[in-house]
Design a protein that fits this description.
Length: 117
Amino acid sequence: MAIPHVQAGEIANVMPLGADLVGTRTHALFKSEDLEVMRIVMLAGDTMPSHAVAGEITLQCMEGRVVLTYSAGECELTAGQLIHLARNDPHALRCVENASLLLTIVLRPDPHNGRKT
């Protein structure tokens, strides 16, 4: 079943998932012309390979623990912590303890082709 996107002016629940974490999949909360917000769900041992995003991002750990590798090195994010990454900063994730994260992406036009990413 698809999770419906939140519309402008609607409230989204971003509380920790707790016992429901294991049965929840990563999903977009909303995407507009300029902004995208997703809940990322990872289980211990999961990895997300290195990639870069054309816009700035924030990654907030809602619960659990993940290790973020990025241009400045490596750090562990735990519940309640947030990090900001610059545009095009390559980054990867490794989940240490079942986790859910709130990802915000600022969508910017690509200066080379005018498309948003």
